[in-house]
Amino acid sequence: MLDSRVCHSIVRENLPLFVDAPKAVISRAFNLTFSAIDKIRRRGGLTSRDLRRQVERGVLPALRARGYSAWLADVGGAPVLHCVANAGTATLGLLALGFGMRLTDGQCFEKSLVSITPHAIARFLQRTDNMDFKAIIGSLKIALCVAESLRSSFLHAGCKQVAIPAGDGLFVGEFKDELPEPLRPHQQHSGNAFRAAALPESRQLYLELSTWFIPCANGRETPWRKVKAYYGMRLCKLDGLPDTELSNEVRQTASRMVTSPTIAECFPFLQNAHTRRADIVETTWHLARKQALQRERLAIAA
To answer: Which of 34, 55, 138, 186 could connect to 59 by a Cys-Cys bridge, CB 3.0–4.6 Å?
Structure first.
């Protein structure tokens, strides 16, 4: 198994090569969305239904062609375009930044932020014994898409722990009350170009997936094994789907998963706060480093 320090170094060096910085990504996505919707609204005399039809025909395909996940949904009786863009940094990890824009008046809503932390990505590399970052970036982006789609479902169910499938294991994390300092709106959007209010469901914006593991890989029984099996029965094979189809398939799967019994009803322990336990892998590596240092000191003394 790889040393965790090696895995963290791989993530730190490679992640910025595959995704752009959050500020640039969200600015591009917002400007494209706002300009396209504003152009349609300026025509005047359009009903809510007309706006929806124009956006479905022109704006959504344009956003998806640029790699954004985009769809329409009603919020408070008004059509809202939802857009999610992937970004990342070596310190924050891989991010899904989402916002919504109401078609009728152009009002923009801060919607969500989901992150897979550098530590979680390093654990994915370490526990799969894989040093090829390029080989896992697709799985990371799929997990991020699934997490963003299910975020509201977990939030409404009162879950304090969240699990998202990836590879043979699960990314696990929790909701945070505050955004990381570099991503707070007043710093993220210069010149107040991105005026954002909170959507009704966004009581907590930030979902952080902080680790990855394979349930029962250490030989101990865990309830996470049944969570993994739950996803296996409900989540179709997503690897290999083009980006334009991925977001649609994930949202359809998410809508199926909120029907009874939901994941929270099947696994009530998700509504309890996480109790931290000793990490066997990290403890093993720490002991190995300590023993190696002792042998080195003995060799020098001899």
So the answer is: 55
**Burial annotation 245-271 (CB, 10 A radius, 16+ → b, else e):** ebbebbbebbeebeeeeebbeebeebe
Q: Number of structural domains, the chain?
A: 1
Q: Where are the beta strands (DSSP E) in the chain?
A: 69-75, 78-89, 93-102, 108-116, 162-166, 169-176, 197-198, 206-213
- Alpha-carbon gap, residue 233 to 29, rounded angstroms: 34
Domain span at residue 214? 4-301
Question: pLDDT by residue (tens digit) across 57-89?
Answer: 999 999 988 888 888 888 778 888 988 889 999
Do the beta carbons of residue 11 and residue 133 sit within 8 Å?
yes
Residue 206 carries which DSSP code?
E
Q: What is the mean pLDDT of residues 279-290?
A: 62
Q: What angle do CA 93, 99, 105 make, to 5 degrees?
A: 165
Report which listed range, 141-145, 170-174, 285-289, is most confident: 170-174
Q: Looking at this protein, which amino acid is placed at residue 30?
A: F
Do residues 200 and 163 touch, judged by C-beta distance below 8 A?
Answer: no
